[in-house]
């Protein structure tokens, strides 16, 4: 396969993983490679404003899983009818099953006080962290691992759990682990929650045109 075809193949195979974790430990060399992929992501002013905390302790994994279960219930209470019934069937995390959580933090003090390119757009730091997460996700896919991004949590809870100082913002809990396989169809599509919108619905010529966007 050509290099470009391999890259597109990984991009298309990448899936958010919840159910497929086997619990087999991730090889240290593989973990180092996917973290290195994250660490060479683009970042505003080359600030590299990320931190990665590896969580494997069973008690910590369970504590976080319990918190996420509460937040899932809080979200479920905002739904009714068909949405509530559909959501009931959707798994939103594989925290304990994966055996490894990578908590990604954003440290806005990295790169000093005058980060090149961030003076007008403070969020550019956060965007950089998300680029690192995507690199990690694609590298993990290429390595045959599953990744599940969990966002059903309160930031203060996760900050305390992993000991981030006040100025470091938790951006993601990533469940990372060996999998039996990756689903071809995203869970949210499979369970009828939502479908990927067509590309045409988000393209605009020259200027944004309200109403040309088919995606709702
Ligand atoms: C910022 C962000 C937060 C997410 N939070 C969750 C989550 O809490 N639980 C979950 O199961 N999936 C979560 N996801 C995964 C999405 O549901 C998933 O990416 C989407 O359904 C498309 O599926 P795919 O990633 O397999 O293509 C999150 C994804 C992103 C980018």
Automatic annotation (TrEMBL):
Domain Nitroreductase: 12-177
Key words of the record: Flavoprotein, FMN, Oxidoreductase
Organism from which the protein derives: Nocardioides currus
Highest taxon in the source lineage: Bacteria
This protein's name: 5,6-dimethylbenzimidazole synthase
Gene Ontology MF terms in the entry: oxidoreductase activity
Pfam families documented for this protein: Nitroreductase
């Amino acid at each position: 396969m050509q290099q470009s075809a391999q890259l597109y193949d990984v991009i298309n195979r990448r899936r958010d993983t919840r159910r497929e974790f086997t619990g087999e430990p991730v090889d240290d060399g593989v973990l180092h490679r996917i973290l290195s992929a994250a660490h060479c992501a683009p970042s505003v002013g080359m600030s590299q404003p990320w931190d990665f905390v590896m969580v494997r302790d069973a008690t910590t994994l369970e504590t976080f899983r319990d918190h996420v279960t509460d937040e899932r219930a809080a979200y479920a209470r905002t739904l009714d009818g068909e949405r509530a019934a559909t959501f009931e069937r959707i798994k939103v995390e594989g925290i304990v099953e994966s055996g490894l959580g990578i908590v990604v933090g954003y440290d806005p003090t990295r790169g000093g006080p005058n980060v090149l390119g961030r003076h007008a757009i403070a969020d550019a730091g956060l965007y950089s962290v998300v680029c690192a997460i995507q690199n990690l996700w694609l590298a993990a896919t290429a390595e045959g691992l599953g990744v599940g991004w969990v966002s059903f949590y309160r930031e203060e809870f996760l900050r305390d759990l992993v000991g981030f100082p006040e100025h470091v913002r938790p951006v993601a809990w990533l469940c990372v682990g060996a999998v039996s396989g990756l689903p071809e169809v995203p869970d949210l599509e499979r369970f009828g929650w939502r479908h990927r919108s067509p590309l045409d619905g988000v393209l605009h010529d020259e200027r944004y045109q309200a109403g040309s966007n088919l995606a709702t």
